[in-house]
Amino acid sequence: MKLWLNGEIIEEADARISPFDHGFLYGMGAFETFRTYNGSPFLIADHLERLQFAMGEMGIESELSLADLKQMVTQLREANGGKDGYFRLNVSAGVRGIGLDPSPYTEPAVMLLQKPLSPPPAERHAQWLKLRRNTPETEIRLKSHHYFNNLAARKEVADPKTEGIFLSEDGVISEGLASNVYWVKGETLYTPDLSTGMLGGITRKMVLALARAEGIPVKEGRFTPEEAKDASEWFLSNSIQEIVPITEFEGERFSADGPVYSKLISEYQKKTKLELESVK
Question: Which CATH superfamily is domain 124-276 in?
Fold first, then answer.
């Protein structure tokens, strides 16, 4: 498929980035993944806000606006046949000499990739990962190029339908390999907070907002696996797969249509339906 790179739509085989880009040399770059519904990038303002925060932390200066990003998505989608897709927006620090120069990066490389969407899975399995979630480079985790912790942990998971769940170094639940995680005890929805080293997901933000709007009690915090024992429901979320129930976790079975999950996915689908209708 074609990609968008520094203002041009080009073939994948023609894409070039300098080996002196600090995104390659030192991991100085950030990215966002999102999907479109009927051509409209869902929750794109939230994704751009998180990206801009990450760039600010790294000293990457960019004038990328919401209007710019929407136009990029439209142009790339049309160049690739006009179908909805999985998009990855990547901002890499740009070219600089070898060395740890902390001054701002003023000429970043901006790239937008697209790939076909697969239908969201109806369910997932889960397992605890042995490798611990590493601590963020700064106070909170950024969606940055520093992804080896996830790739290394992925080797523990033999089944691609299974999501590995990280614990922090001190043994509290953090996040999935590519998702945020939730469970239900009683009538309360539980999920880890930012202090566990997890990424503050855009879909997670919506899930918690929907839960609170529906009167579902929400507790964010630091919880051990023992404290999550006897949960009645488990589920995951991310921007591509949406909200997905966990039906098996370390040999224990769970319903694919628990009441909290069912309510949240119903409300989420109402939001995506409105997105579809708004661009007709």
Answer: D-amino Acid Aminotransferase, subunit A, domain 2 (3.20.10.10)
The whole-number average pLDDT for the span 88-101 is 97
State the amino acid at position 119 in one-letter form.
P
pTM of the predicted model as reported, rounded to 2 decimal places: 0.95
For CA atoms 192, 197, 203, 209, the dihedral sign is: positive
Residue 23: is its pLDDT beyond 60?
A: yes
pLDDT at residue 38, as a whole number: 92
CATH class of 2-115: alpha beta
Domain boundaries, the chain: 2-115, 124-276
Gyration radius (Cα) of the chain, Å: 19
The closest of 240, 185, 242 to 216, measured between CA atoms, is: 185
CB hemisphere CA count around 170 (13 angstroms): 6
Q: Which two tokens stand for residue 36?
A: 């479109």
Q: Is the pLDDT at 279 greater than 90, yes or no?
A: no
Measured between its terminal Cα atoms, the distance across the chain in Å is 26
Check whether 36 has a pLDDT greater than 60: yes
Q: What percent of the chain has pLDDT over 90?
A: 96
Rounded CA-CA distance 34/73 in Å is: 11
- Shortest CA distance to 89 belongs to which of 10, 13, 20, 34? 34
Q: How far is CA 214 from the centre of its chain?
A: 24
Residue 2 has pLDDT above 60, yes or no: yes
- Residue 176 in contact with residue 236, Cβ under 8 Å? yes
41 C-beta neighbours (distance < 10 Å), count: 26
Structural tokens at position 23: 């995104």
The candidate with the shortest Cα–Cα distance to 37, out of 203, 271, 265, 245, is: 271
